[in-house]
């Protein structure tokens, strides 16, 4: 029975390692080549990348022209037809809109650096020779200008540069007052239809409202569909980081959700084979990468002065002629009678995967923060970390406090196990004597050993319990550290300047190995030489294994081991004192 207990402990440790390797390979095991931000080149590729309308069999429109964008494009950057891009800067964004089609062709996140220690903002969207990743929207169909064989509509703009100084107070119906920045663009058809495309930015917020207003002053009804889509090539995730011999980067691909199916992944390679074609009201589509996400959330439709109502959108995915990955939506066919107007909108989000913000945009969008199959535990751990961070203001100390709380919660269960292990350690000499006395008589030895366990109140399998309790917590914390953008580049102290990355000096893994070795010395030592050798190698194996894992995860293990050592030492001392008193009596 004692051998089975030891094998169970070894098995539990190996299962933990195996699950970590699986998680690593699933999310972080792909090769990575960093994509430099070099000067862009103009692309003249033309393909039918816009979605097919329900009322037109052919769509012949060109892709928004790739632009000359350097690392930080200036307001003088021009499109292929020699027109300036529209530059917009808020407190969270710096982005560029192409007036031909009105697409967002570059977007930088001002609150997130491109790399630890860099003063360059993180680039989400861009269109140059290194990467194509843009947010497109427009109107297609019988009268939709984006279905025009001549190409995307050329919008007229009031000016080509907007900043925080252009923001205005916007009182809402719920009494809240916010600062908003609107960027209107106008396109007029020869028949007398005026189309106003407006981007609305809110101070301190990532969601962008994209609104189309069709004013029909022509002599016939206007008919079309609103679409929004994300177009991306197969370039690597710029959020991936190198970790020594490992290259890190989480899931990169498409995702979609509806009120009934909250979160679904769709790999780029399956955009055709498992093509998305789902109708939903309140759905969304997205491209997900490490720590960040870009998503379209269909909005509302209203005619003239009527109240806006949510519309049922057709969620779609496909590969373009040049093998670009496209995921998006189209609205139902919209009819605008002569002399009336119509507004249709959607929300575009491109930024960090902040759960509290994403959950309010659409059902399931916050699940792009993918904590894996242990998400219930991971969410509780993140909630605990977030709570502690509000008080201490440091994620490293938050991890330490969370570890202490977890250990306190598990203390009663683990105390029973450690007490049983301490008793096994105390009776080890008696077991050795019995083994020598009964020699090869295994039946007699087992009977005497079971009798000894019963007399001493020892459960040989109890030593497995603490490790089995810690396994799901340890794995869940791994996903929390890897998926929570709040911990991206988060420093602790001294040389640990990024808890989501490995310890650059390997100090924490070495400390972890020492604590694991000390903890093992407090456990019953195997009588079998082979088992004893495996146990001695475990601290070394796990030290090497943890060299390239996030420093925050290693920190958790160190604190957990340290508390366990103190707990076991006090329990062992208590058991020894009780046995001495029993012998004296």
Automatic annotation (TrEMBL):
Residues 395-572 form the Membrane insertase YidC/Oxa/ALB C-terminal domain. Pfam families: 60KD_IMP, YidC_periplas. This is Membrane protein insertase YidC. NCBIfam families: PRK01318.1-3, yidC_nterm, yidC_oxa1_cterm. It is found in: Cell inner membrane; Cell membrane. One of its GO terms (cellular component) is plasma membrane. Keywords: Cell membrane, Chaperone, Membrane, Protein transport, Transmembrane, Transmembrane helix, Transport. It is a multi-pass membrane protein. Gene3D superfamilies: 2.70.98.90. Residues 86-382 form the Membrane insertase YidC N-terminal domain. The lineage of its organism: Bacteria, Pseudomonadati, Pseudomonadota, Gammaproteobacteria, Moraxellales. It comes from Acinetobacter boissieri. GO terms for molecular function: membrane insertase activity. Required for the insertion and/or proper folding and/or complex formation of integral membrane proteins into the membrane. Involved in integration of membrane proteins that insert both dependently and independently of the Sec translocase complex, as well as at least some lipoproteins. Aids folding of multispanning membrane proteins. The chain crosses the membrane at residues 7-24, 395-415, 458-481, 539-559.
